[in-house]
Amino acid sequence: MVCVFGDSDRPSWNRPLPTCVAPCGGKSTGSTGAVLSPGFPGNYSGAQHCAFSVGVPHGFVIFAEFSFFQTAHKDFLYIYDGPSQRAPLLGSLSGSLREKVLPLTSSHQMTLVFSPSKDSSAKGFHLVYKAVPKSSASECTPITAPRHGQKIGSGLAVGTTLGFQCDPGYKLKGAKSVRCITMANALARWNDSMPSCSVPCGGNLTDMSGTILSPGFPGSYANNLSCVWRITLPEGDGVQLQVLKFATEHTWDTLHVYDGQDEHALRLGSFSGTSVPTFVNSSSNELYIHFISDVSMGTGGFHLKYTAVGLSSCSEPNRLSNGIKIGDRYLVNDVVSFECESGFKLQGHAHIMCMPGPIRRWNFPPPICRAMCGGTLTGDAGVILSPDFPGTYPNLIDCFWDIRLSEGRAYELQNCPDPLPFPNGHVLGSGVGVGQSLVFRCQTGFALIGQPVLTCQHGVSRSWDHPFPQCIAPCGGNVTGMKGTVYSPGYPEEYPSFQDCTWLISVPHGHGIHINFTLLHTEPIYDFISIWDGPNQSSHQLGIFSGNSGLDAVSSLTHHVLMRFQSDFSIGGFFALTFFAYQLRKCTQPSPVANADVLLWDNNLKIGDMVTYRCRRGYTLIGSATLTCQLNTWLQMVPTPPTCTASCPSEELRTDSSGIILSPAYPANYPYLQTCSWIVVVEKDHNITFYVESFQSERQYDELEIFDGVNRDHPRLAGLSGDHTAPLSFATHGPEAFVYWKSDHATSKKGFRLHYSAGYCSLPGAPEHGSVLGPPKGSLGSVVRWTCEAGFRLVGKSTATCRSSSLGYLAWDARVPACQAVSCGVPRAPINGGIIMVNRSTEMVIKFTCNPGFRLLKPQQATAFCHRDRRWSHGDSPPICSVISCPDLGSFWLEHGGWRLLNGSGRDVGSCLVFYCLPGYYLSGPRISYCTASGTWSWDEERPKCTVISCNELPSIPNGRKIGTQVTFGATAIFQCDAGFTLVGTQVRECLASGLWSGKGAGCVGA
Questions:
Q1: Which residues, 6+ apart, have CB-to-CB distance to 202 below 8 Å?
Q2: Which ranges carry the Sushi domain (predicted)?
Q3: How many CB atoms lie within 10 A of CB 353?
Q4: Read out DSSP for 205-267?
């Protein structure tokens, strides 16, 4: 910029002030520097793809650390140890981090890639780096703190000692400290390897406070865990457990907490899914925690903290079902009171006190609230419940309730009938008042019959807009998911007669289905279950199960299983089975092929492995010689095995030094009306000798002829017809021969086996994807060798020697081997995902998939290839399956109403919202909405709407007047009488939320 005189004759700069911005990507060189996110220190925004390249002088490596890091949880920064994204991954970071030191690079180059999504924004990151020497005689290589831990101390000089410790909840594996030492005639190095921090599966804890994490935290925990933590504190102290994070697979993965030293103590709770209290308190100085996970997927796990608390208070009393607790102090001598909800009666002590002593206990157990059989009810409002509600009422009861109100009072129904109990299912939502909705869902294995959402209607009577639905075990259906349950029709009751039910169980492609009978009690023989490995009854049958002795397990090789249950007219029974999906990995061996030899590496056929067939001499291969273990519709060897047949060619040319000629269909009888011919040509300085090993034909009419030349115009050496048992031989005068066979329409016999040879071993062929090395015309003792191309392995013998046979002719003692492509093995599947493997010629292809509710973070990483160096193209680093989220509903406004979350987190797949209206309004449009697997809410164009409730119009009264014309919720009608008349009834009536007018009808009577 230059200071110049402008048009106003005043000095000014000739250009505007520049700005410095952090770009999206770039190249940095030099010994020190920094890398910033786009727009830093402002927020980054919008969909971008930023690649940063960092280079320092040769002979140095890069030391880098973040002074600031904050991204959206779905935006990842990937750091690679080299000049491109094909280099090893140093780390992938997301979210908010404190100061983070990266591992040293192995070279002088580093690559960073940042690709935020279009709808995310955050402040980003600030990374600083510098060049450091690889090592020296007086200085060790820089090291970083272990993940989930800290490094204690600094410096790299010889004699320096650095210590390590882990974050709370993690355990150090390896050395607690390392020291930089010198080595004779070598560079300085640390005396031990760097430790790591991991979460232990259980342990004995005696500190006054501590942390308990699920194994693998903050990642997902593993399958089949059984972890036990025992917390023991000094006597006089109790244990308070605080839950900071908790997310396990609902029902299947459970955390049990016991108030004592083992599982025989009082259980304080068993927690699964995401429903867990914030605090759990013991009544003694010991706490026993047991976490169990099943064989299927893990989730985010848990983060717990415990602290010692003085046992100066009693534990909070158990929640009073159908009642309330009064009082929130639980110190010694404090008193807590209990009251029951309307319709229930208190049984037990209404007041309990926290007793003094070495252990805090209440002087009485908390009472219970019970629905009684009959009674006298007073008051302006109340509830009547069946005995023992919400459970089932007893048999043989006769109950009377006497309702006594003040004179002139009536009663008004406030709530719709309670749907509980709801057998074989559960109800989402708890409101049964006017305008409130309930959602009904069934347990696994049951189907919902009826409407899934019911709304309590307004009006004169309280009723739901649809009858209560039912959850029944259906007779057949389509069942999907990674695991599930199938019950007999009508379960848990016995199935009816004459049932014919079909279930199609489907899991994601690339998986098989394991079925286990947990209950089987059917009429033997007559009532049975048939299971097929595929979608129809033409598939392979896995078995037939009947009676009560077949509590077996079966596994399919496809991702479909068809199950059919049939019962007759007589006695019933029941059954229950569970299933889960498992990754398909191995093929079954193909069936043998007649007249063929099989070449395979071993009997354990994994995906990508091959089987090669070689027909025995004299037979022709029809079909594919190589089968590959592939995952198509199911896991199998493809294509189908070939066949080896003795064919009937026309002038088939044979140039090998020895061979066998067979009659058509040998060793079976030859067909009728056949005309076949073969031409045998060997090296010019040799003749051909024929050996007849067996011969049976119809005399005179079916004949084999051998000519001393390439066609029938040459002299005939032999003509064979009829039966010949003694070995015969014929020799040509030159290197050529013509063999001719003809059969008529009459008798058919076994035919012939004819062997021919010359006085040498011709060079055998090379296998596909291989080569052969040896003399073109081998003599006795000559050797040939076979080799395969890179990426292929030789199956069979690698060498063959020219030897003399029992008949005196020369032949190789080994057949041509096979060169089979080498599999890269089964790679790791993504977390919350799976793999589908197929085979394309010699290159195996993987397709990565994500489980329902997840999708690939980078769709371009959906496939990987097995290269000939036996390495996967993706470096065995599976892509990331990120959680699918629906749009935030924070901006959605329902006038005169709102929405509440029934289950889920609010945006994750499967989250369910129910809409409601304020008193005085009713709902139209969709009542619930689900977050679908596509990341959208389940409603269509129609949106929920709250409309004001109206009352019927009140008529005018004779000899008076009505003031007010509105009839909507909250409106009032005022009645007045003419002079000389007196008003009876209610003067001011209001339109209520129920759609009814308050008060009684008015009228005017003469004074």
A1: 227, 228, 229
A2: 138-199, 312-371, 414-473, 585-646, 759-821, 822-883, 884-948, 949-1006
A3: 15
A4: E-SSEEEEE-TTTTSPPPSS-EEEEEEE--TTEEEEEEEEEEE--TTTSEEEEEESSSTTSEE
Rounded CA gap, 417 and 31, in Å?
77
Element (DSSP H or E) covering residue 638: strand 635-638
Query: Structure tokens of 170?
Result: 């993690």
HSE-up of residue 441 (Cα within 13 Å, Cβ side): 12
Longest Cα–Cα distance of the chain, Å, equals 151
Length of the chain: 1007
Mean pLDDT over 654-671 rounds to 94
Q: Beta-strand (E) ranges in 712-782?
A: 716-720, 723-724, 728-731, 736-742, 751-757, 761-762, 770-773, 777-778
The model's confidence at residue 843, banded by pLDDT at 50, 70 and 90, is: low
**Contact present, 794 and 819 (Cβ < 8 Å):** yes
Q: Hey, what CATH class is 897-948 in? A: mainly beta
93: its two tokens: 């970071």
CATH topology (fold) of 960-1006: Complement Module; domain 1 (2.10.70)
The kind and range of the H/E element at 403 are strand 401-404
pTM over 0.90: no
Q: Which CATH class is domain 415-472?
A: mainly beta
Domain 473-585 fold is: Jelly Rolls (2.60.120)
Region 750-754: mean pLDDT is: 94
Fold exhibited by the domain 18-134: Jelly Rolls (2.60.120)
Q: Once rounded to an integer, what is the mean pLDDT over residues 184-196?
A: 77
The CATH architecture annotation of domain 203-310 reads Sandwich (2.60)
CATH number (2.60.120.290, 3.65.10.10, 3.40.1060.10, 1.10.540.10) of 646-759 reads 2.60.120.290
Distance, CA of 699 to CA of 747 (rounded, Å): 9
Pairing of strands 203-205, 226-232: parallel
Question: Which CATH architecture group holds 312-405?
Answer: Ribbon (2.10)
Confidence band (pLDDT; 50, 70, 90) for 84? very high
Residue type for position 575 = F
